[in-house]
Amino acid sequence: MNGSRNGEGREPGDSVTFSCDPGYELQGESRITCIQVENRYYWQPSPPSCIAPCGGNVTGSSGFILSPNYPHPYPHSKDCDWLIAVHSDYVISLAFISFSIEPNYDFLYIYDGPDSSAHLIGSFQDSKLPEKIESTSNFMYLAFRSDGTVSYTGFHLEYKAKLREACFDPGNVMNGTRMGADYKLGSMVTFHCEAGYLLQGHSTLTCVMGNSKRPEWDRAKPTCQAPCGGHFTGLEGTVLSPNYPHNYSRGQSCVYDIFVPGDFGFVTFEIALAKLLFHRQIGTKNTEMKHQNNMSFSNTSTKPGADVNGYTLLYQKIVFFLLAFVFILFYSIM
């Protein structure tokens, strides 16, 4: 059942071979031989069977995926996972030939990627035949889950590798966000960094036809890095240690200049997750400097224009000598 046989011989020494229909796997030997022992005739080894497997890796350019035991009802309490992988120049087109799953209790989950952490294309149930779906990459992951009671006949799916007409999903950047979800030729995606990080590379990528005659992004994806030092002029902001949220390297001296208009009130600093030494340099109208060295702190504020030991404050220059751990510094105008 669910296969075919080649060979009609039934005499001792005759052999026949078996093969399965697409989507089924052969259980047993594909070739068996008729043997005679005294007055008894039998096949050795025993004839094989063709079954629909519960999950597996599928790598051909086209093929079929069946629910276990198809076309008979699938077993209870089954967790079956399939990974479809085709050549990197292609995407995957998946069509539903038949579909019947117990509603609300049994599900077929389909993901746009190599595992269940990828984008969920859909969760399918009931007996309504879903529309054809297509991946954005050369991977598609299917997860079938059945409960312990009612079973339906299951599903019969056909997949085909389809030449890419769009760029692959570029993904997101760590410590940043992405705008744009269209990857067709001519489409653009733009990346932005979270507060305190600087963009390294180009912020906008465009999907173009590459030298390989395949769609590809015209630039490498950027990254968002926490710099060692910087110049800050906004009314509020965030200062991060280098490589935050990971540990910074030893022996760095990072200078962060924060310039605030003198018409505003207090400049308030709040340190989180900090273990460091602090050196504050106070600028004055006559360019003289007042120093406070090796001062450990978790919260401090100074009013621009105020008198500090006989000097008028214009700005603050904060120098952090990195000793251990990581830190976040938030500043704002009050």
From TrEMBL:
Q: Name one GO molecular function term.
A: serine-type endopeptidase activity
CUB domain residues = 54-162, 228-261
Q: Which PROSITE patterns match?
A: CUB, SUSHI
Does the keyword Kinase feature in the UniProt annotation? no
- The residues that cross the membrane are 313-333
Q: Name one Pfam family in it.
A: Sushi
Checking SUPFAM superfamilies in the record gives:
Complement control module/SCR domain (SSF57535), Spermadhesin, CUB domain (SSF49854)
GO CC term, one of those recorded: extracellular space
Keywords assigned: Disulfide bond, Hydrolase, Membrane, Protease, Serine protease, Sushi, Transmembrane, Transmembrane helix
Q: Which residues belong to any copy of the Sushi domain?
A: 1-52, 165-226
- This chain belongs to the protein called CUB and Sushi multiple domains 3a
The source organism is Poecilia latipinna (sailfin molly)
